[in-house]
Write a structure and sequence with these properties.
Blueprint lengths: L20 H9 L9 H4 L1 H17 L22 H6 L6 H9 L6 H30 L8 E5 L2 H5 L3 H13 L6 E5 L6 H17 L4
Parallel strand pairs: 1-2
Length: 213
């Protein structure tokens, strides 16, 4: 069986998922407020913006960057493409994180850079856990019958360091021994491919069954 899951729209009334003040801010300022709430917590398009919102709240409290922001950092989307570089930065002085912030006209000390990396890690770890919760909820019954292969696309799974491991670790925690029967396969994004495959399979099935009487 093939299931094409469009789970980004889960929780349309915004009453189930564990939203923070930063999620609410992002939602209000997004192009489509109150649409795709789950996607806004796990998608690369939004994770950098959540991180930016957290950082700016700490700037306002004078807990980071000596309380100074910049015109560049104040722009929505300023960190959208930077999280993979920040998360992959394992240098002693966090030089890559420093470079990212310098491009936004932010001067930092090591503690600032460490805070930025920690915030980024926490936001992405939450995304991995929420993704695992969605997968586990869908598979909780079917896994007792047979192993399952899951095709996953998107830049978060493909490009973010350790995201796959975090996802698998969370699945193991949520599903216990059943997690060993889950296989994750990376499918590089192709909009409409899943729907096209399902349509083709349905057409082939109808040909095999013959005309309805």
């Amino acid at each position: 069986m093939v299931v094409n899951i469009e789970w980004g729209a889960f929780d349309p009334e915004r009453k189930v998922l564990p939203y923070t003040i930063y999620d609410h801010k992002l939602n209000r300022e997004s192009v489509e407020p109150d649409q795709q709430p789950f996607e806004k917590m796990i998608s690369n398009l939004y994770l950098g913006e959540i991180v930016r919102n957290v950082i700016l709240s700490l700037v306002d409290l004078r807990l980071i960057f000596s309380g100074q922001s910049s015109q560049e950092l104040n722009q929505a989307g300023a960190l959208t493409n930077s999280l993979p570089s920040i998360l992959a930065d394992r240098s002693e002085n966090l030089e890559e994180t420093s470079r990212v912030l310098e491009e936004l006209e932010i001067s930092t000390v090591w503690v600032d850079r460490q805070m930025v990396k920690c915030i980024s890690s926490w936001v992405v770890s939450r995304a991995a856990r929420l993704t695992a919760c969605g997968v586990a909820a869908i598979l909780s019954d079917s896994l007792q019958k047979e192993p399952t292969r899951i095709a996953i696309g998107g830049s978060v799974y493909e490009l973010f360091p350790d995201f796959e491991k975090q996802l698998l670790d969370n699945l193991d925690e949520l599903l216990g021994g059943l997690a060993k029967d889950v296989q994750l396969d990376l499918v590089r994004e192709n909009i409409g491919l899943g729907a096209a495959i399902i349509a083709l399979m349905a057409h082939q099935a109808s040909l095999l069954q013959g005309p309805l009487r």
